[in-house]
Amino acid sequence: MSHTVLILGGGVGGVVAANRLRRLLPSDDRIVVVERLEAAPFGASLPWLATGHRSSDSISRSARQLLHPRVEVVTGDIDAINPETREVSVGGRRLVGDSLIIALGAALAPERIPGLADAGFNFYDGQGAIALRQEMSRFRGGRLVVLTAAPMYKCPAAPYETALLLEDLCRQRGIRDAVNLQLIAAEPAPMGVAGPAVSASVRGLLESRGIAYLPEHQVSGVDPVAKRLHFTNGVEASFDLLAFVPPHVAPSVVTQSGLAGDSGWMSADRNTLETKWPGVYALGDVVSFPLAMGKPLPRAGVFARAQAQVVARNIAAKRRGRAATARFDGHGMCFVETGGGKAGIGRGNFYAEPVPTVALHAPGRVGHLAKVLFEQQWLRGWA
Fold first, then answer.
1. Smallest Cα–Cα separation from 360: which of 171, 191, 163?
2. 4-106+250-319, what's its fold?
3. Per-residue pLDDT averaged across 226-244, rounded?
4. Residue extent(s) of CATH 3.50.50.60 domains in the chain
5. CA 224, 226, 230, 236: dihedral to nearest 10 degrees?
6. What is the pLDDT at residue 293?
7. Which residues pair with 339 in a beta bridge?
8. 8-state DSSP, 246
């Protein structure tokens, strides 16, 4: 009897799980990926898109382009998820899986901060990144602010990369002396989940480039007319150009289907990715894995990729009547693009206790080329 694996989400986690399963499962088993978007940009490339190093077409792919030819694709919005029966409704169409993988990512919610969406440019969105690039081409000087609107967001390095790339762009355009560049952060330190050494290194990168860093500033509202930021600590700040990371939330179908826990996100075993519902897995940005240090595992494509490989191996093992022994061990890496064809590489064990053991290698050409390779692996179809 054939087996059906239903995968919700055509991002990194969903694509990697589907492609790996297609290689591991019998040929008559069905693998079905549900994705709402016709095409989407690769998230790790958005800082490059925002600063003119990439075009939208060069970093955008449809799920169909990335998936094995014998993986089925259903395009549409998911109306409901029933984890008990592993049943999903997509535009009124009923789909049922013997195994269900939920890899729906995180939803961007700029509307949670009054005035934010109208005041600046959301570079975590493809259209917002393009709009920021266009505005930068007209920018001649003033106060340029990069803002994180909440302390937890995916791709923890991205706002710091973007600030460094914007600074590099200002230098290239000969306007750096006319620009007051600030990074105002809701979090207490850059990339704090990677540990104090990495955090200090990233802060040092900002300061070495004259980028003022203001941590622990939680924005409460923005006046798009007066161009002023209001923070919960009573501080106000002005800007001439605002680039921001919006708050992140679980997709509405996850909360409406009762899948989100007290944290607002899905929960799963941090090693096997299986949820409390047998045969139902959650991976990537939609799930929260608390660490001993009190912060959750970073939401990043490298972790989604590794988690998807674990889930695929375990589903295939169970399908063959074998023990599911694959485990996600918390190891991962990230890039910190600094401009000038250089990037730092951070790698280590994020599950280490009492704090993650992560080291950041100094920015260089090798780091940049490694990130380019990382990008190209995805754009060619990643397994």
1. 191
2. FAD/NAD(P)-binding domain (3.50.50)
3. 98
4. 4-106+250-319, 108-247
5. 150
6. 86
7. 342
8. P
At 382, is the pLDDT very low, low, confident or very high (cuts 50, 70, 90)?
A: low
Reported as a single tens digit per residue, the pLDDT across 125-176 is 999 999 999 999 999 999 999 999 999 999 999 999 999 999 999 999 999 9
Dist CA 242 CA 248 (whole Å): 18
C-alpha to C-alpha distances, 187 to 21, 124, 223, 237, 301, nearest whole angstrom: 38, 17, 22, 17, 21
SS3 341: coil
Nearest to 186 by CA among 143, 223, 132, 232: 232
The closest of 64, 63, 112 to 222, measured between CA atoms, is: 112
Yes or no: say if 113 and 245 are a contact pair by the CB < 8 Å rule: no
CB-facing half-sphere around the CA of 358: CA atoms within 13 A: 31
Which of these, 72, 65, 21, lies nearest to 40 by C-alpha position? 65
* CATH assignment, 108-247: 3.50.50.60
Q: Return the pLDDT at 294.
A: 87
Q: Is 58 exposed, middle or buried (0-12, 13-18, 19+ CB in 10 A)?
A: middle
d(C-alpha 43, C-alpha 300), whole Å: 9
Sequence-separated (6 or more) residues with CB below 8 Å from residue 155: 43, 44, 124, 299, 300, 301
**Strands 121-122 and 241-245: what pairing?**
parallel
Q: State residue 206's pLDDT score.
A: 97
Token pair for residue 105?
């990512």
Q: Which 8-state DSSP code applies to residue 202?
A: H
| Residue 245 identity (one-letter amino acid) | V
Nearest to 47 by CA among 142, 141, 169: 169
**pLDDT, average across residues 184-189:** 96
Asked whether residue 383 carries a pLDDT value surpassing 60, the answer given is no
Rounded to 5 degrees, φ, ψ at 212 are -70, 135
H-assigned helices in the chain:
12-24, 46-50, 56-59, 63-66, 116-119, 126-138, 158-172, 196-208, 252-256, 301-319, 365-379
Residue 299: both structure tokens together = 């939401």
How far is the C-alpha of 163 from the C-alpha of 46, rounded, in Å? 12
Structure tokens belonging to residue 361: 């290698």
